[in-house]
Amino acid sequence: MFYVPVVFFVLFFAAPMALTVVWSVFERTQFWMEPGFTLFAYDNFFTSARAENYLFSMVHGAAAVAISFAIGFPIAVFIRRRVTRVAQHRVILLFILPFMISELVRVFAMRPVLGRHGIINSLLIDLGIISEPITAILFSPLGVIIGDVMSFLPFMIFAGFLALEAVQNYIFEVCDDLGTGRVRLFTHIILPLAAPGIFAGAVFIFVNSLGVALVPTLLGGPGAVNAGLIANQAIVALDFPLAMAISTIMVVTLVALLYIGHRLFDLTRILEPIS
Amino acid sequence: MTDPSDIAVEVADLSKNYGPVQALKSVSFSIESGRYYALLGPSGGGKTTLLRLIGGFLRPSAGRVYLHGQDVSHLPPDRRPTSMVFQNYALFPHMNVERNVSYGLKLLKAPAGEIRDKVERMLAMVGLEGYNRRMPHELSGGQQQRVQLARSLVLERDVLLLDEPLASLDAKLRKDMCLELKRIQEKVGITFIHVTHNQEEALTVADRIAIIADGELVEEGSARDIYETPEKRFTAEFIGDNNVLPGVVANLSDGRVTVDLGFASVDVASHGVAAATGDDVAVSVRSELLRIVDGEPDAAWQIMPATYVEAIYLGLTVSHLVRLPDGTEIVARVISGEANDGAFEAGKEIAVGWPGDRARLHVA
């Protein structure tokens, strides 16, 4: 019985991962691939515009992470500090509700919000704040970032809240006693204690913004891509080794990020109550 | 007689409501400077609320808090000459011992050399020299509380507030820490206010004890007075191992009161307690002062008939359980190995009583 998790892990994580790496060095055939060893797919990736696009999508991902932190973490702090203990989990639940809606619908629904005649533009024009609609927020790189933030913001709220939930109220009272003040309470106490949670949330958002092809497809306009979309395009073009190579590069990126995060914050702490 | 400047803490008509719940009902008392003061009472009785009001962690619904004569009711915790030691888990988990203790001084922008000296001195005082680099999770519960103590004392504020500081420690460690706390208080000489629900802890550490229950100050006095001559019936029931017997005043004469218990009459000194004939009162006698009388009682003793139930061996003492004619069971305790520590036959008709003025009279 105790080997079920091991079997599960091998079957659904380790084996597909290994196959991805193996297939990425196979020879491409017209409709599939055949065993062999060639780095042609990697060469193809790094010498084409794909590498550049991949880097761009990493920059977009970083921007989405930064904005999500700026919006989501204060929400997490607010819920932990200002909402009564019994209501906290219900408030958190509210942020889960959007995940019950199909991602396609959720992302698509942002078009009438962000569009040229969308809710935001109409509102700003009606209020007299702008005279011409803002077109940079849809079918543009900014649109993709906005889409990523709207889609994945709850990850930052959850992860930040979970980290702060482990911090005893006594800690905040000690700060009152010592006269820590608001700013230093945030920089000296809250931020370091929530760091593992913030990092975990950041990784979720970054990986999703790199990999979820839907957001650039629906909100990005012509030529907008992210890593997930590049891989999709390779599959559509029946270039399976290339798709596998892109996936491998994404996995390597993720592992590198996790390694850095683990060295900085000791990610195992996320799962431990703070003593 | 007392110089007002010697009063470290004074609370006047202090009340705290949580919605319709009155956690504290107009409490007034004062604490002399340099005392080790315990707030003792059952859980939920309002003692922690009182401590938090003194420390500024709660705002009073009514009443005032004076520290050294200054009205501090409106000040936040860091602007009051108090510092708080919490129950547990109150160390900054991401800071080592030294950083935890020095943090408050760094906020005050004290010079680095001075901070280092003070931190070293404090760690020595609480017995944690050389623990500077340890993280909180590497310390035992007792060590964590010592660090908290150092973190508060290093601020050199006038009053230290301790909110159930030993509640999460095991019995043996709690005993050691009690003596340690008392030693430290004597050394630093500032006022300590210690909240606890554990009477042994309060008796060990405190010079003076206030009994807090049901949002009210029941009784206040020296540790010995509270234990030996409780004024209020609640105190008698809460502290020590008292037998409390309800009765009616039958006769009054010259500082002595005769109380009719229904099945027996006992004569107790009034000790200034005002009672009138016919009043409902209670008589308390501590179990270690109650004796089992097997045979002819001494005429000078107060005697009640009883039926022997059983003996319970508790190590240091043996508790003899006896049943009074009205059905209540009371306890007479003797030290194991001394006379009368053996059990009698269950159901044996005996008598219990006490010589002289060992019982106390309570009107409330």
Given the structure, what is the number of helices of chain A? 13
**Topology-level CATH name of the largest domain in chain B:** Rossmann fold
How are helices and strands ordered from N to C of chain B?
EEEHEEEHHHEHEHEEHHEEEEEEEEEE
The best one-word shape of chain A is globular
Strand order of the largest sheet of chain B: 6-7-8-3-9-10
Query: How many domains in all of chain B?
Result: 2
**CATH architecture group name of the largest domain in chain B:** 3-Layer(aba) Sandwich
Estimate the helix proportion of chain B, in percent. Answer: 10-25%
CATH topology of chain A: MetI-like fold
The Cα radius of gyration of chain B reads: 24 Å
Describe this structure in words.
The complex is a heterodimer of chains A (275) and B (364). Chain A is mostly helical and 275 residues long. Chain A has one domain: MetI-like (MetI-like fold, Orthogonal Bundle). Helix content of chain A is 73%, strand content 1%. A two-stranded antiparallel ribbon of chain A has the order 1-2. In chain A, helix 3 (49-82) packs across helix 8 (141-165). Chain A starts with a helix and ends in a 10-residue tail after the last helix. Chain B is an alpha+beta fold and 364 residues long. Chain B folds into 2 domains: 4-228, Rossmann fold (3-Layer(aba) Sandwich); 241-362, Nucleic acid-binding proteins (OB fold (Dihydrolipoamide Acetyltransferase, E2P), Beta Barrel). Chain B has 8 helices and 20 strands. In chain B, the strands form 4 sheets. A 6-stranded mixed β-sheet of chain B has the order 6-7-8-3-9-10, with helices on both faces. A 5-stranded antiparallel β-sheet of chain B has the order 13-12-11-14-20. In chain B, strand 11 (242-253) and strand 12 (256-260) form a beta hairpin. In chain B, helix 3 crosses helix 4. Chain B starts with 6 loop residues before the first strand and ends with a strand. The chains are: A mainly alpha (275), B alpha+beta (364). The A-B interface holds A 167-168, 170-171, 173-174, 176-181, 184, 188-189, 192-193, 274-275 and B 55-57, 76-79, 83-84, 86-90, 92-94, 103-104, 107-108, 136-137, 151-152, 155.
